[in-house]
Amino acid sequence: MRKLGIVAALLALLCTVPAPVSAQKLYWTTSGMFGPFDIKALIPTYPDSKQVTIPISMWVLDHPKGLVVIDTGNNVAISDGKCKPYWVAGFCDMLQPSQKRADVIDMQLQKLGYSTDKVKVVITSHAHLDHIGNIKMFPKAIHAIQKKELYQAWWPEKFQRGGAFVMGDFADARDFNYLELDGDYDLFGDGTVVVLSTPGHTLGNQSVKVKLPETGTVIISQDAIWMQANLDGYPAGLNYSILDYTNSVNRLKMMRDLENAKILMPHDQDQFATMGNKWYK
Q1: How far, rounded to the nearest angstrom, does the alpha carbon of residue 89 sit from its chain's CA centroid?
Q2: Does residue 35 form part of some domain?
Q3: Residue 44: strand, helix, or coil
Q4: Binning pLDDT at 50, 70 and 90, where does residue 3 land?
Q5: What range does the domain containing 37 cover?
Q6: Residues 6+ apart with CB under 8 A from 135
Q7: Beta strands 119-123 and 142-146: pairing type?
Q8: 244-258 per-position pLDDT tens digit
């Protein structure tokens, strides 16, 4: 009888399947908007001219192992119409940023009941002005970024230079704790938050895959895929390599299809209008 009891216990252990681990909840917010302007300014191959006003997406992930921010938006200095003293005039005139002080990531965190000093990890998709703008607000965090992209921030290749990189965004952040990545990375070691290397837009562009308890898997593409037009076959107009860009788009599409995931796109006005400014659990 005792042996039967031991066998039963062993069988019970073998049959016990651990519950899948998932991140707790994800909030999609924005650092103001860009526009309106003609979509062809961003996607030259788009067949028709049309005016777009696009979100500057940021993400707050409340995870059991720590609070995560994905991209920090436009620098606080451009808030409330003060763009030209900080950005080059051409970018201000074309993009027409609408950011108010209340849109900046520190205020967005405060609105959600958090503070910058409670953020454990900042994931920066790439070093362009609308994605890395406020990393200096997070001196205590671990900053996860592709090593190639970090070098492009400090010492950009000639073809990468221009108004999209603003040294003031990260000039005083050299001594931060950088998790310098070389490819994909499972952030917490449990599959809930996976940083994906998606070069093409920049040398070290990265996206993030998140597993949520109710929503399931979402892929935050950041600038690997700007908007639906890119998924429809019209490539973004600002890429260092159209080959790497296309490979990254195809990779995320395959992940979407294989994992029944949703791609959340940072600059898609229609998607943000229906899905932005809310929690996903």
Answers
A1: 26
A2: yes
A3: coil
A4: low
A5: 19-280
A6: 72, 122, 124, 143, 169, 170, 173, 176
A7: parallel
A8: 999 999 999 999 999
**Is residue 246 in a domain?**
yes
Residue 131 lies in a domain: yes
Task: Indicate which CATH number applies to the domain containing 203.
Answer: 3.60.15.10
Q: How far apart are CA 254 and CA 265, in angstroms?
A: 16
11: pLDDT strictly greater than 90: no
Give mean pLDDT, residues 130-139. 97
Out of 3-7, 56-60, 263-267, pick the least confident.
3-7
Question: Is residue 202 a contact partner of residue 246, using CB atoms and an 8 Å limit?
Answer: no
Q: How many helices (H) and strands (E) does the chain have?
A: 7, 12
CA distance 184 to 197: 5
Work out the average pLDDT over 138-157: 91
Helix (H) or strand (E) run with residue 11 in it = helix 2-15
How many domains does the chain fold into?
1
Question: What is the three-state SS of 48-116?
Answer: CCCEEEEEEEEEEEEECCEEEEECCCCCHHHHHHCCCCCCCHHHHHHHCCCCCHHHCHHHHHHHCCCCH
Q: Is residue 2 part of a domain?
A: no
pLDDT tens per residue, range 190-237: 999 999 999 999 999 999 999 999 999 999 999 999 999 999 999 999
For 33, 132, 179, the CA distances from 166, given in Å and listed in that order, are 18, 9, 21
| pLDDT exceeds cutoff 80 at 113 | yes
Write down how long the chain is: 281
Going by C-alpha positions, the residue among 169, 225, 227 that lies closest to residue 201 is 225
